[in-house]
Amino acid sequence: MTTLFISDLHLDPARPEITRLFGEFVDGEARGADALYILGDLFEAWVGDDDPSETGAFVAEKLKALADSGVPVSFMHGNRDFLLGGDYARRAGMALLADPMRIDLHGRSVLLMHGDTLCTDDVAYQQFRTQTRDPAWQAQFLSQPLAARLAFAQQARAASQARQGELREAGTMETITDVSPVAVEAAFAEYGVDTIIHGHTHRPAVHDLDVGGRPRQRIVLGDWYEQGSVLRVSSQGFDLSTLPGP
Ligand code: MN
After folding, report:
1. What span, in angstroms and rounded, lies between the C-alpha atoms of 58 and 53?
2. Is the pTM of this model over 0.85?
3. CA–CA gap between residue 159 and residue 138 (Å, rounded)
4. pLDDT tens sequence across 121-167
5. Which of 55, 114, 144, 171 pairs with 207 at a CA distance of 20 to 30 A?
6. What's the 79 CA to ligand 1 centre distance in angstroms?
C-alpha cells in the first residue's frame, strides 16, 4: 500500500484548473492509497472557517468523500492556511496534525513538517509567525468581521510579494527563503529520525545528508502552481513526482 504526501497547492478561486486537478487526484489515485497527508498551504489564504469561497466548499466535499471511502486524510497547517480550524477540518473529514509530527511510515520513523520553521534565516518571517500563531492574536483576528479579515489577507499577500521583490533585488532570495542547514540538523537530532518530509520552499528534491554520522534524508514536496506534485511512499521505497498540469 502507498501513502501519499502533498503540500503547497495554494488552491485559490483564481486558479480553478489547479483545483480541478486536485479534485481528480483525490477522486482518482488517492482512492487507492492507505492514507493522504497534506502538509500545509492547501489554500492560498484562509481567514476563518466561515470563508464562503467555492474552492473551500469543493475541497471539503472531495476530501470528505475520500475519508468516507476509508482513506484517512491528515492536514498540517502551512503559513497561508494556519487559521484553518476544527470546523472546516470536520467538514473535510480530515485530522489536524501538530507541526512537527512524528509518524511511523512502513517501519521507518519519519518527521513531518510544513517546513517554514526550518527557514530560520528569515528573521522577519519568524517574528510574523510567532505573532500570528499566538492564540490571543488568533482569537482577536477571528472576532473581526469577514470583510475585515479578507482585507487583512489581501494586504498581507501584497506585503509578502513586495518583500520577495526586495529579497530578489538584494540577491538574498535563494538563501533567506530556503531552509537553514543548522535548523535541519537540529531537527534530525532533536527528533532522532532519519527522514524528514516537508514542503513550503517549493524546491522539490531528495537531499541525502549525513548528520551525526548517520545517513539521513530530507524530502521536499513540490508546489501545485503549474502542475501537481506528489510523494508516494510504500514498503518498496518512495517516488517524488510531478502530476501533469491542466
Ligand atoms: Mn508555505
Report:
1. 9
2. yes
3. 19
4. 999 899 999 999 999 999 999 999 999 999 998 898 888 888 888 88
5. 171
6. 5
